[in-house]
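Table S2 (text version). Query chain:
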Amino acid sequence: MIAHLNGIDINYEVHGDGTPSQSRRGDLVLTHGYSASLEMWREQVAAFSAQYRLVIYDSRGHGETTAPADMEQYGLARDYVADQLALMDHLGIERAYVGGLSMGGMIAQEFALQHPDRVKALLLFDTGPGMGAMAQDAARVAQFTQMREMMQTLARTKGMSAIIDAMRNSPMALSPAATARAIPESVRRHVENMKAMSVDGYLGGSKAMQDWSGSLDRLPRITAPTLVLVGEQDNLLPASRAIHGRIAGSRFVLLRNSGHGTNMWRPDAFAAETLDFLAAVDAGQSVDGEFVVP
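Corresponding structure-token output:
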């Protein structure tokens, strides 16, 4: 479905609407990662929509949602958060379980900080508190800036296929998770699907993350029950631990044998841990603690 909101067309899907059990448990709104689309959640749709009304959508510049040509229309704290707020308003959702993976987790953090009254619980998958957290690490900032400029030039001159080739040879693609076991088909499919992404959307999303001031110093303000889940071989593991350490009472879950994109590397475990957390929230139980899933 398409809705014209906040000046762009937003593509979204709603699953599991209309049964009494879902009405009691409420709405679960999930935002995908950078360079992905709502298709990223496809393996979780059945499990999540069996218990909640599930809303998934293509974020700005991704999938079937508008990709503005103006790079100034890709503000994470302004535009991406406003898009999600507008979609929730459009669907009549007062409060929801709000979550996201990677860049989607950054959007979820910012959404929870700006609109705490709209968040029943927060789910942060394979994510970090933003580039702002490393503002004083000049070497890392320079490294990311150089990488962004290189990828921008590559995308503008040779297109998305060249970006995919570069990703196949990136440190993330060659991580222990990728070399120790076969790469899941869903991960391969995600990379290949990037061919259809617009260059404007790809560069705009990158700019949004790099320009975001980050959440690190503001995370203690979050009071909603929070799940922080990450893969053992994810480069964002230290960043996820930092988030967990700053949100009081949060639950930290580490999935073994998983790289970035835990819902694709370990779909069954990912769904089980997410639903276990939500069940605890629904029951009014404490969610804090640290867990390792073999």
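Notes on Table S2: Residues 231 and 255 are 5 Å apart (CA to CA). The chain is about 45% helix and 15% strand.
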